[in-house]
Write a sequence for this structure.
């Protein structure tokens, strides 16, 4: 099958370089009217390169040579790859004006991902590809990183290109901080956009600028429960001052009819503003439904007045409800341990948290690895 999901597992990679770019982190700026990740995803999902091709569409942020890209492949794992793993040509192509690659290669490199199962050695599935003849885009140019299996027997020797996926109803845009980014698949010579897919991709430019999406792990059990004294939050420190008009989230209601309360506070606990989201606005779902849709709903609420947040000051978003209701929100793990630049995710210190005592104390122990997660769909609406 061209599509299948899996949880990233196994030992953490300690190889590779953690690059530091010179640009502002996209999740930390206020582009497109949001501050924060704004990523909607439930799981990893792949495009099998056994006769199919995959594309990560993105918009160049600099008029500087694209020196390298970092991406994720599944190798040596039954159902996702076979044989030698094939040979993957990674090329840069322009957009044809309809959202699809032109087919004209501007530059390319070929790699052999191999046949090592990344569940045992995660680093085997994550590759940084450096272009020997980098293409220099115009600032704002819409481009594609295209993945073709050029092996002589591509249905025998192949791997899979892994990305993010959100189950359920179509979300548009799937990730508002990255409105032009998308995953496409070519089957039988025809390209098509993959609904609710988001690329896992880091793009590094010769001038040191880094852009991309570096969240790379999800699990159906990595969620926080919201009910009575059990609360979930996101601790964050803006690197630029901004005005927060509201909040965007993606979560589910397990039971009950009490509203969800969203409160913005300083890290010290002083309340700035709050609002409620009616229970009827959040669909009932299940927090332990494995590979099926959890039933999350994307919701947005507004503060009574826009809140001025100061650069360098820490804040925490609190999610709470009455004890007679239960909500759940999943988290997404950022590639801190997998050589993704912090500029490709919401920084190394911003993080999802949980409390079991009505907010008196907060713990990073939410998600598979403590302190490395952000709330699904979280973003502040700026204005």
């Amino acid at each position: 099958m061209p599509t299948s999901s899996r949880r990233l597992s196994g030992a953490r990679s300690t190889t590779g370089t953690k690059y530091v770019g010179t640009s502002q982190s996209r999740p930390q700026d206020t582009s497109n009217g949001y501050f924060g990740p704004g990523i909607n995803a439930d799981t990893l999902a792949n495009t099998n390169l056994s006769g199919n091709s995959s594309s990560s569409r993105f918009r160049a942020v600099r008029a500087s040579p694209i020196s390298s890209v970092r991406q994720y492949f599944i190798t040596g794992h039954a159902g996702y790859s076979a044989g030698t793993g094939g040979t993957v040509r990674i090329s840069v192509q322009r957009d044809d004006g309809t959202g699809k690659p032109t087919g004209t290669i501007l530059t390319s490199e070929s790699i052999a991902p191999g046949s090592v199962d990344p569940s045992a050695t995660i680093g085997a599935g994550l590759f940084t590809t450096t272009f020997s003849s980098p293409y220099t885009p115009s600032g704002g140019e819409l481009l594609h990183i295209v993945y073709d299996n050029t092996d002589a027997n591509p249905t025998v020797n192949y791997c899979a290109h892994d990305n993010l996926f959100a189950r359920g109803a179509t979300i548009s845009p799937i990730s508002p901080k990255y409105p032009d980014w998308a995953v496409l698949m070519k089957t039988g010579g025809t390209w098509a956009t993959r609904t609710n897919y988001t690329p896992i991709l880091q793009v590094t430019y010769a001038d040191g600028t880094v852009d991309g999406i570096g969240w790379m792990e999800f699990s159906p059990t990595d969620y926080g429960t919201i009910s009575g004294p059990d609360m979930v939050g996101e601790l964050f420190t803006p690197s630029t001052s901004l005005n927060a008009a509201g909040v965007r989230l993606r979560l589910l209601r397990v039971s009950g009819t009490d509203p969800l309360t969203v409160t913005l506070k300083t890290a010290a606990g002083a309340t700035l503003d709050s609002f409620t989201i009616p229970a009827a606005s959040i669909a009932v779902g299940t927090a332990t439904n494995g590979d099926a849709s959890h039933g999350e709903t994307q919701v947005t609420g507004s503060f009574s007045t826009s809140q001025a947040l100061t650069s360098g000051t820490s804040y925490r978003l609190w999610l709470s409800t009455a004890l007679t209701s239960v909500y759940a929100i999943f988290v997404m793990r950022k590639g801190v341990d997998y050589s993704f630049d912090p500029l490709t995710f919401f920084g190394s210190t911003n993080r999802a948290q949980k409390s079991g005592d009505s907010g008196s104390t907060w713990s990073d122990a939410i998600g598979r690895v403590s302190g490395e997660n952000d709330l699904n769909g979280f973003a502040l609406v700026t204005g």
